[in-house]
Amino acid sequence: MSKKTYLFLILILGSLTALGPFSIDMYLPGFPAIAKDLHTTPARVSLSLSGFFIGISVGQLLYGPLLDRFGRKKPLYIGLIVYILASAGCAFTQTIDGLIFMRVVQAIGSCAAAVASIAMVRDLFPVKDNAKVFSLLLLVVGASPMIAPTLGGYVTAAFGWQAVFVILMGMGIVILISVFLWLPASYQPDRSISLKPKPILLNFWSILREPQFYTYAFTSAIAFSGLFAYVSGSPILFMEVFHTDEKVYGWIFAFLSVGFIGSSQVNTLLLRKYRSEQIVNVALIGQVIIALTFLVVAMNGWLTLPTTLMFLFLFLCCIGFTNPNAAALSLAPFAKNAGSASALMGALQMGMGTLISVFISMFEEPSAIPMVLGMAGSASLALLVLLIGRRTITTQVDVPQDADAAMLH
After folding, report:
1. Rounded to two decimals, what is the model's pTM?
2. Which residues cross the membrane (predicted)?
3. Each residue of 302-328: pLDDT tens digit?
C-alpha cells in the first residue's frame, strides 16, 4: 500500500468516525434558538440529544452482525442514506417531537459509519499497524468537539439552527460518494452468521457474565456518563445562566474539550510506566473529589463563570484518563468476539448517557445544579461499582496493544 493510498484511506475512515461527534456537538449552540422557533424550552430541546444517544445505543448492537453478514459497504450505504434523509428531516421539522424523532433516526444512520470504520481498520491494514491507525482516528474524534460547536455557533448566529443540519446532510452526501468511489470492499460477507435474536442475545449474555467485563464496562459507562451530563447541561448553563451567545459558547466548548483530549493523549505516556488499573483508580477518585466539590460550590451559589470552567476542565481531564483505561480493561478478556464485546460496551455507555441526559431535561428552570448533580452522582456510583466489582475478578487479563479501538466508542 502506497503512502498516498494509506493517507487517503485514513481520511475516509476518519470522516466516518467523525460523523457521530459532529452530529452531537454542532447543534448544541442552537438550543435557545430551537426552543424559540419550536415554541418549547431548552430543557425539552435537550431531549433531542437524549434521542440521539438512544439511536446510537441501539444502532451499535444492530450493525455489528449486519456488517459481518452482508459485508461492510452495503449496510454502510443504507446507514448513510438514512443519516442524510434524517438530517434533512431535522432541518425542516416544525415541532420538537418531530426533531426528537428525526434525531433518533439520524443517530441510527450515523452508527453504521462509526461501527464500519472500526471494523474496516482491521480489514484494510496489517495487524501491526492497527494501534497506529486507531490512534490517528482518535485524533480525528478528539478534534471534532473543538471544531463542531465553534462552527455550529457561527453558523447558527449567521443562518439559523436549520443550517447546521443542512451542513450535516451535506457531510453525509460527500462521505457517501467517497465511500462508493474510493473505499475498497474489505470483507467477504459471511452468510453463516445468524441474525436471529436468540443467538445474538446469548452471545451478548456470555460477554456480560465475564467479571472483568461487567466490572470495568459498567465503571467506564457510568463514569463516562458524566461527560453526557456536561454535554446535555452546558448549553443551558452557559447560554441561559451565564448568558453567553452562540459564538462564545462554541469557543468555551472547544476550550473544555482540550482537557478531555489532552489527558487521553497524556494517558498514552503514563501507560509506559503505570498499569491501566492504577490509572483508573487514581483518576476516578480524583473525578469524585472534583465533582463533589463542584456540587457543594454550586449548591451554595458560589459559582462564577471562571470557577465553572475550572471545575469542568478538571472533571473532563479525569474522564480522559478513566475512560480509555476502563474500556480497554473491559475488552481485554476477549479475542474471538471482541467486536460484540466492543458493541455491547458502546451500547452501555450510550444507555447510561441517555439516562443522565433525560434526568437533566426534567429540570425546566435554568440552573447549574442538575448538570453538576449528574456529574457527581455518576462519578461516585462508578467508584462504588469498581470497588465492588473488583472483588469478583479472580484473574485479570492485561490490556491488548490495540486497545485504542475501545476509546472510539
Report:
1. 0.83
2. 45-64, 76-94, 100-121, 133-155, 161-183, 213-231, 251-270, 282-303, 309-331, 343-363, 369-388
3. 999 999 999 999 999 999 889 888 888
